[in-house]
Amino acid sequence: MNIGEISEKCGLPAKTIRYYEDIGLVTPNRSDNGYRHFNANDLHKLTFLCRARTLGFSIEDCRILMALYEDETRASSDVKSVAKQHLTRIDEKIAQLQSMRDTLSHLVSECAGDNRPDCPILNDLAAVKG
Amino acid sequence: MNIGEISEKCGLPAKTIRYYEDIGLVTPNRSDNGYRHFNANDLHKLTFLCRARTLGFSIEDCRILMALYEDETRASSDVKSVAKQHLTRIDEKIAQLQSMRDTLSHLVSECAGDNRPDCPILNDLAAVKG
DNA sequence: GATAAGGGTTCCAGTAATTGGAAGGTCAAG
DNA sequence: CTTGACCTTCCAATTACTGGAACCCTTATC
């Protein structure tokens, strides 16, 4: 199938699929007219990539996971290790955002939000710490 | 003061301060030798920027907030509005990460993590939906 | 006076993962 | 034969820096 069709099926934009070919994540064949020709295995790979990216894995993680996916002699512990590391990174990010959120929502609640210039949000931002 | 000193005080790397000058967020004077010379107002601005970035505001948000900071006739409602929008974006991001986290931690818990190749994580990633 | 250390300067390139757009080739239908 | 929907490649932009090269300024030391 052509790139438009597989794009529909795997959930990735055609542009992204071409990019993934560029960086060596997939290597579709070419038809005589120069069009990329994708087979069922390509569909599996691209679906895999789409899903992994949706779960926030980096492209480099995806590369590792794809290699494991294609290696029939892998140990599931290797996969689990990559996933757990990613989970840790997600948790760190959530904690960081939560901390931002807490500070910011406190500031927002303090601010009158009227037409006077006095503003606790700006006051906080501009405060030079000792 | 020179860039090294103000960098210490405001918490931003010298490189970042130069970048902020490039994009017009600060405009320090220059000494005769061509060195940037920062005053107390520059320190306030850069501290402001450092804090706002720490809270996750984008550079463009910072630009808006800085303009409000410098406008003595601002309405605090304008500041609050920017902050609330940002808060919404943070909440969305947290929700998205939380959803990734839930899915991933479920998969991780299902995976034996031993030296056998069978792996629910890879199975999930490769599954072509509907 | 030479030199070395520790500032400072500019400018160019790279990061992550796409995305947008231009210029142009291909194919099926009317 | 032309129109429209595909496809192709290649270059540039995005966000917010960061690294590095090549070079200048200042001060202290030999």
Strand order of the largest sheet of chain A: 1-2
Average pLDDT score of chain A = 95
Oligomer: homodimer
Strand content of chain A: under 5%
Of all chain pairs, the largest interface belongs to:
A-B, 58 and 58 residues
Keywords:
Multidrug-efflux Transporter Regulator, Chain: A, Domain 2, 130 residues, 2 domains, two-stranded antiparallel sheet, mainly alpha, copper ion binding (chains A, B), DNA-binding, 6 helices
What does this protein look like?
Two copies of one chain form a homodimer. Chain A has 130 residues and is mainly α. Chain A has two domains: 1-59, Multidrug-efflux Transporter Regulator, Chain: A, Domain 2 (Orthogonal Bundle); 75-130. In chain A, 66% of the residues lie in helices and 3% in strands. In chain A, strands 1-2 form a two-stranded antiparallel sheet. The first copy, chain A, is elongated and about 70 Å long. The mean pLDDT of chain A is 95. At the A-B interface, helix 3, helix 4, helix 5 and helix 6 of A face helix 3, helix 4, helix 5 and helix 6 of B. The first copy, chain A, binds a DNA duplex (30 and 30 nucleotides) through helix 2.
